[in-house]
């Protein structure tokens, strides 16, 4: 999850120290727009950070390298970071936040893997053990009309429009419901940047 503005990282670390089996905090990018990412100066520390995160995302399978994996592995040296990132940015899943599999009320059997990116919000079908299936529902941002985090039911709820059909609400049951809402808010903010140039 993303830290909330009122949370202090060190206090969280100390609080979780006795119960966490591994480090409970990590630093991740909080930028979805590739256009904005490309404005970072070369050699900037943020660019190096984005490179290392991209390597990690490829290794986890969140960036789908498919037939380009060998090429990416050959570029996986920090001195070749610009080349690596240029290739990684062309691949599906680059810059997306992928959530753990969870239940969804639009699926009677099995779970979904939610994924939030600048182009769309995707729900990839999977079994209850998390093994991926072939079906993916991809919703572009202009079809999503409302969203909210429901603390009581531990769900992220969103409404989307369908061609010549009534609006539909979907619930994704995940402990990361607040983070999903944060991602949606951030995407909408970044889309305004692209529209207004801010």
UniProtKB/TrEMBL annotation:
GO terms for biological process: endocytic recycling; intracellular protein transport; signal transduction. This is Uncharacterized protein. Keywords: Endosome, Lipid-binding, Membrane. It is found in: Endomembrane system; Endosome. One of its GO terms (molecular function) is phosphatidylinositol-3-phosphate binding. InterPro entries: RA_dom, SNX17/31_FERM, SNX27_FERM-like_dom. Pfam families: SNX17_FERM_C. It comes from Phlebotomus papatasi (Sandfly). It is a peripheral membrane protein. One of its GO terms (cellular component) is early endosome. Gene3D superfamilies: 1.20.80.60. Its main location: membrane.
